[in-house]
Fold this protein.
Amino acid sequence: MGNEVMSVLKKDYIYNLMLKGKRQDGRAFDKIRNIDLRTNVIEKAEGSAWIKLGETEVLVGVKLQVGSPFPDSPGEGVIITSMELNPIASPDFEAGPPKEGAIEMARVTDRGIRESGAIDLSKLCITEGEEVWIVFIDIHVLNNAGNIQDASSLGAIAALLTATVPVEREGRGEDMPIPVRDMPISVTLVDIGGEMMVDPDLNEETVCDSRITIVSNQDGSISGMQKSGDGALTEEKLLKAVSLACQKASELRETHLLNI
């Protein structure tokens, strides 16, 4: 009962702030928290990135190994994205196999990279139908202060931009950069009392009516979308969310990725 009362009080507090055009941390509704992004932070990985979004902290490692292609794409490399919600990151996270939330967020990140064609998978083919490079994108959440999804998306692309295919190690020629040709970025918004807010913190995620993540590419096209929560979004609100997400993704690319 105590937790339910706290939840209602928290929702009322955030809702009343929203009515005044305010958020708990003083941000505007369309403002993303401060970002600290560093690459090449894991020596033994082919590519890596550490990202801090507000107080949310995520580490992404990229590893490559030779394996078999999927039967329906014999001439293309493979992407496998996974996420681990470490118990140190939140009292709500438990040790053990990935839970539903981690699998869902990994899928959204994976879908954005796959559907945008961010990696030219044909260049990761070694012998068609037999051997290709498999790209493992491993996401480790170190601290959860809300919006793990966007931190993971940005960290994954940053890690890929620094990654190399370890061709030399396999005795197949010289190492080469992973052929990255797009930078899909996810931007998450929450609906609280009819107002859309970008980059929700943990409290805003907890009390929101609905949440939507929009993955957009460099040309403004959409390569992924995921909605959760019971609240409905009108067509007008959805279009506004898409427009804002594309704008914010463009800003994130310019500020944090184009200089990698």
